[in-house]
Amino acid sequence: EDKVVQSPLSLVVHEGDTVTLNCSYEVTNFRSLLWYKQEKKAPTFLFMLTSSGIEKKSGRLSSILDKKELFSILNITATQTGDSAVYLCAVSLIQGAQKLVFGQGTRLTINP
Amino acid sequence: DSGVTQTPKHLITATGQRVTLRCSPRSGDLSVYWYQQSLDQGLQFLIQYYNGEERAKGNILERFSAQQFPDLHSELNLSSLELGDSALYFCASSVGDRGYGYTFGSGTRLTVV
């Protein structure tokens, strides 16, 4: 069964800290890994990673994929209270169901 | 506004009842996906439609069904509701049928009492 596991499930840090969120996966027919940010309702897209070792960056957020070790990390530097959210990792598959397999999410809380 | 519209935003209903959730995809998107998000589980894929046809099925209960209409909006029908069906139901859409470029709607929060 396809599986995506995120850690930690919950994280509380102070504003200005740097955080690293982890995502490991065991799936057949991997195509890409995606990160989403979910605040109140709809998950919003952050990154899509398809190749190992190539860092994707957007402002204070960055992410990288390791297809050999089957994991990805999402880094957030100089955290702000607005970064508080649930961060979801999902894997897209090449064949079969055109679905995303999601992890449980990491609930990140940034305290001022 | 993501462009994916879901109605209603909230729904409270009793056990045993039937409800219909509606989703209008982003303009130009042909695929619609339905997901269920419970408190104790992450987002679980239910079903995908592409241009009116069912394309993929996940762990969707037999009590649940969906369809996509010619104007590409989709409806998810949930019947014989149980307390455990209480969840956030998300619709997402994409241009093609391969899951790229997902855009999620804001979800419908269903509470079964």
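The CA atoms of residues 41 and 56 of chain A lie 25 Å apart.
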